[in-house]
């Protein structure tokens, strides 16, 4: 009974320490991106060239991951036998890594649009970013 009581008290203490108040809504920063001197028309449709570059690198890495998961050498398969499973695994890994690497590259918090475009480009390359941008342009209150 003593052990059970100790575990319950420890869980209550841990939950009490984790319930901190969030202040993210109070500190809304305006993001100002200076465009490059030449026309930047990547299909990823993000306004920061550094973020577009990181999206390209992460997308290329996800493509390499897909082919690595599919495996195969000299007609033998040593990887996943389903191309759909390999595509899903590479897309999930890309969607997880893309906002993290983008944040590190641009050294600021990404906007919701930038995160959604980066993630959509992992699931549907090029088309996903265009779709998300059109979706947010039609509903600016969601940004």
Tell me about this structure.
The longest helix is centred in the middle third of the chain and has 24 residues, at 83-106. The protein has one domain (42-142). The protein has helices spanning 2-18, 49-70, 83-106, 112-123, 127-138. It is built from 5 helices and no strands. The model is unreliable at 36-44 (pLDDT under 50). Helix 2 (49-70) packs antiparallel against helix 3, helix 2 packs parallel to helix 4 and helix 4 (112-123) runs antiparallel to helix 5. With 143 residues, the chain is mainly α. The N and C termini lie far apart (52 Å).
**What is the CA-based Rg, rounded?**
21 Å
Tally of individual helices: 5
Structural class: mainly alpha
Shape: flat
Distance between the termini: 52 Å
Note the beta-strand portion: under 5%
What pattern of helices and strands is seen along the backbone?
A: HHHHH
